Amino acid sequence: MLENIAEIFRSITPKEFRVLTAIENKMKFYEWVPIEEIVNFTGFELKELEYILPNLAYNKLIQRNIKTYEGYRIYFEAYDLLALNAFVKRGTVNSLGEVIGIGKESVVFDATGGLIDRRVAIKFHREGKSSFRHVRVKRETTGERRHLSWLYAARLAAKKEYDALVALYPKVSVPEPIDHNRHAIVMSIAKGQLLAHSRLDEPGWYLDEILKQVRIAYGLGIIHSDLSEFNIFVHPDGCELIDFPQFITPTHPNAQELLHRDIENILTFFTRKYRINRDIQEIMNTFVT
Hints:
Layout: H1 5-11, H2 14-26, E1 33-34, H3 35-42, H4 46-58, E2 62-65, E3 71-74, H5 76-90, E4 95-103, E5 106-113, E6 118-125, H6 132-138, H7 150-168, E7 177-181, E8 184-188, E9 193-194, H8 203-219, E10 232-235, E11 238-241, H9 255-274, H10 280-284
Antiparallel strand pairs: 1-3, 2-3, 4-5, 5-6, 6-8, 7-8, 9-10, 10-11
Helix pairs in contact: 2-3, 8-9
């Protein structure tokens, strides 16, 4: 992850963005994009590329391979910059702040955007960064496509999560989806703080609120399928559910099993921390499509 992503973004020229876009585009077909393909895509002279490519490599945005031929591929950080550039051009994002969340498969930045400089969050998906073979086995979002890459996996995960937020908001208490590009989502900042790090004065009320939101989401055709105290925010007025890249629909073959697991995770947390006991089967019986 680039710690100085905002500074690097300001230093990237339009021609450098064009080269990054060329490599991104051709990575659909090559593990290492031949320099000839970059020339063809950009229309730049080879001598010009011989200046641009080393600068991008210096900023740790691209990687070079010369084992069998001269080829290039982008790092996740370059993909971040390409998505950020799209958001800036649309006016969705005006400035980038600090990292406010790091997960196993995502990085979230604080930002401002829109005409009124509204505070927003940018979530960059990271599926496949550590082990793409693991992603291919685990994720259904990759489908049956033969040529797979971390770029493709992260893009699909972001699109899937954005679609879930669009389907749920505002009927379910989730972040407002604002924009989506490549592997990144711009959304409203989650309200409050993580349930896992909170001390609730009325835990029973919050448990009811969480189950209510899960139930409404189910009625709208969305099962989180990875719900826990680490992706629920709580605040004085209620709760907010986050992180939907693994959602499934009630027609999924494992829908009831995964819904049961979601509810069981929440009940286990409230039992462990607040000694609240609920009958999970009675709760399951309240879920109807």
